[in-house]
Amino acid sequence: MMLFLEGVDPTIPEYVANGPYETFTIIVVVLATPTTPVVPERYAIKEIRQWSDEDKKKVGLDGKAKISTIGIRAESNKVSFDTIKRKRRLKV
Which domain of life is it from (predicted)? Predict the structure, then answer.
């Protein structure tokens, strides 16, 4: 499954390893005035309508990465289940 997804896009393992992709925008520093304090730089999550084409692509790849981890877990769970069944058969 993972090899197939790597064929679709080689960056998918990065999304699996580093968690979900979230789109952020940087809100720049607002300097102090005589009546207001400095507002530090901060990050805010972008609204969907603010997403660039690159953001949309990365969010889509993140979804494919989530699907791949579900498939990998399902395959490993099946292997674990089969191993337990074999061990039980040997003990009985």
Answer: Eukaryota
**Against a cut of 0.85, is the pTM above it?**
no
Locate the DSSP E strands across the chain.
Answer: 24-27, 42-45
Tens-place pLDDT, residues 49-85: 998 998 888 888 777 777 766 665 555 656 666 666 6
**Within 10 Å of residue 33's Cβ, how many Cβ atoms?**
8
The alpha carbon dihedral of 35, 41, 42, 44 has a sign of positive
Rounded CA gap, 68 and 12, in Å? 9
| Domain span at 82 | 2-91
Backbone angles phi, psi at 43, to 5 degrees: -110, 145
Tally the domains of the chain: 1
